[in-house]
Design a protein that fits this description.
By secondary structure, the protein is α+β, with helices and mostly antiparallel strands. The protein is built from four helices and six strands. Strands 1-2-3-6-4-5 form a six-stranded mixed sheet.
């Protein structure tokens, strides 16, 4: 009888643990939303511009491509940075968010000596008291020979 009782308790525990582990995964998968603008969808790139998981919008790295084209904003790091920020702003806006909602960014620079020029433009998109946490590193090559690529995360509780 003792062995039967132990086996029953083991089975109850195993089933409870299995259900407990499976439930959050199912709930999370229902909260995943993929976003591409019509222009990005038409380009058939192998990634989404952004993916919302729960309350976080994860944006893919953005480069300074001109809207509707596959060419970079001409003129180097500053015009490219402005275009990158404008492109990110469009993704945020399409998801009902603003730069105030951005809490983390990762910067990839083709040349680290452009860090100051990048910061000069980047900082104008944020309130001084709401600057996101950030990492920056040099990259040996970016898509389309871009000078900068920026990836951001935003809180999407709205």
């Amino acid at each position: 009888m003792d062995a039967i009782l132990k086996a029953a308790w083991f089975l109850v525990g195993f089933v409870s643990l299995t259900l407990w582990c499976a439930t959050p995964v199912a709930a999370e998968s229902e909260q995943v939303q993929f976003y591409n603008s019509p222009a990005a969808a038409a380009a058939k790139l192998p990634f989404s511009q952004a993916v919302r998981v729960g309350d976080v919008l994860y944006m893919s790295g953005a480069i300074g491509i001109l809207p509707g084209k596959r060419e970079l904003a001409p003129g180097g790091i500053e015009p490219e940075t402005k275009q990158v920020m404008d492109n990110i702003g469009e993704v945020l806006k399409a998801n009902g968010l603003t730069f105030d909602d951005v809490f983390k960014c990762t910067v990839m620079l083709a040349h680290m000596f452009n860090w100051g020029a990048f910061n000069k433009i980047y900082a104008t998109y944020f309130k001084p008291e709401r600057l996101p946490a950030r990492s920056a590193f040099g990259a040996s090559g970016l898509a389309l020979d871009a000078e900068v690529e920026l990836e951001c995360w935003a809180l999407a509780r709205k």
